[in-house]
Amino acid sequence: MKADPFAQVKLLDIQEIDSRIAQLRHQLANLPESKEIAALQGSRKGLDNRARDARIARDDLATTQAKAEKDVEAVRTRRDREQQRIDQGLVTHAKDLERLQAELQNITRRIAVLEDEELEVMERLEGAQSALAELESELAAADEKIAGLTEARGERAAGLEKELADLTAERPVAVEGMPVDLMALYDRLREQKGVGAAELRARQCGGCRLTIDPAELSKIRQATTMDVVRHEDCGVILIRTSESGL
């Protein structure tokens, strides 16, 4: 293939635009904040599950405490009622009075047991509420960090997208007037290898960074300026300049 030397050199400008476009797309697809957000969301899910379990435990203990309070109140009411009967002299028979007083003693012991149970439940409930509050605090901190990272990611992405849009608009201008066959070869190589054209500088290929061997250099020296030269190893179009070392 042959092409105007100026058009060949211009391929370097087009390649620079394409390389930067590829870099920007890669950066947009791999924003560091996205990885941090994903990691935080993963740990947050675990926190959320633990908080859900903690809420269930707290609610169960709250229900148990409410029942314990109700049980204590019911027994106290019964004790007060029986004590009132005695105080009002409603129980006159000695055996009935003795039986009732013995029952009051049992009720008093029962109240003590129930109050101990109620206190134990209250302590457990307090612990469950404290554990839940800590988990909810960790969730709030995670949400705040995720929100901050999301905002930072949006700002970074906006800057990259602006630069990408500018370069995407710039490319057709750079390509305008280029030989169709040369651009077809360049685009095909770029799609296959990521690089379509590279400068031959100091006898080194700018695409694969390999030094050109003497035999290939000899062939390149013999080629005319109109000849489109390609590196035998990586296949990219080699652009010859005054820095090529030929």
Structure keywords:
246 residues; mainly alpha; Helix Hairpins; 2 domains; 4-stranded mixed β-sheet; 5 helices; 4 strands; rod-shaped
Folded structure, characterized:
There is one protein chain. With 246 residues, the chain is mainly alpha-helical. The model has no long low-confidence stretch (mean pLDDT 94). The protein has two domains: 5-16 and 179-240, no CATH class; 31-175, Helix Hairpins (Orthogonal Bundle). It has helices at 5-29, 32-87, 94-175, 180-193, 214-222; strands spanning 197-201, 204-205, 229-230, 237-240. It is built from five helices and four strands; from the N terminus they run H-H-H-H-E-E-H-E-E. The longest helix is centred in the middle third of the chain and has 82 residues, at 94-175.
Quick structural overview:
The protein has five helices and four strands, in the order ααααββαββ.
- Cα gyration radius (Å): 42 Å
Strand order of the largest sheet: 2-1-4-3
Order of helices and strands: HHHHEEHEE
How many beta strands in the DSSP annotation?
A: 4
Q: How do the strands and helices of this protein lay out in sequence?
A:
Layout: H1 5-29, H2 32-87, H3 94-175, H4 180-193, E1 197-201, E2 204-205, H5 214-222, E3 229-230, E4 237-240
Parallel strand pairs: 1-4
Antiparallel strand pairs: 1-2, 3-4
Helix pairs in contact: 1-3, 2-3
